[in-house]
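Q: Hi! First time doing this. I have a protein sequence and I read that you can turn it into a structure. Is that right? Here it is:
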Amino acid sequence: MAHITAKKYQAKLADDLCRKTHFSKPEVESLLRMFKKYIPGSANQPHTHHNSRMDRTKFRDVLHNSFDMTDDMLMDRIYRAFDTDSDGFVNMEEWVQGLSVFLRGTLDQQTQFCFAVFDLNQDGFISRDEMFQLLKNSLIKQPTEEDPDEGIKDLVEITLKKMDLDHDGRLSYQDYMEAVKNEPLLLEAFGPCLPSSWAKIAFLATFSEEC
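A: Yes, that's right. Below is the predicted 3D structure, encoded as structure tokens:
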């Protein structure tokens, strides 16, 4: 009986997610199957909102293995951006909806996503200190005689001059959105938080073949 209930739940979930995302129903079904494979011992359980949850370690494995991401700080922030109900786990709905933005999101959706990743303390702004942390974290560490922190501080000031449209010394979402609309390359100004084109194609191919 539980199996039938789980099957019905899965079918309804696939229908709902198909309407809410940039995926077709067969693609959603493939992503849900993929999600199940990542949950230890889940094959024998009926899948509901409560017992199908991916933890941070498994999610980071997916980001690393499927999208070649290696930056610990950004992977942690991406995990939090996927975890929209802030319960410390990524459930099936969050998995599909997050991947929809991550892989096929509109510029507006990806702008919101990247801003959420870069807003480290979630206060609605990207501060000078957050820019410094993000840039220091993502720039390649090269041995140099100069103080690398000074170079990063200069970069923060250059970035603020370009993106801080209301000149208050920090980036609001409005500042960031307008700057990205004018120059889309600024979307990942503080580090890579979206998959590269080749990683996106490779990942989509893994489940599109099933459809």
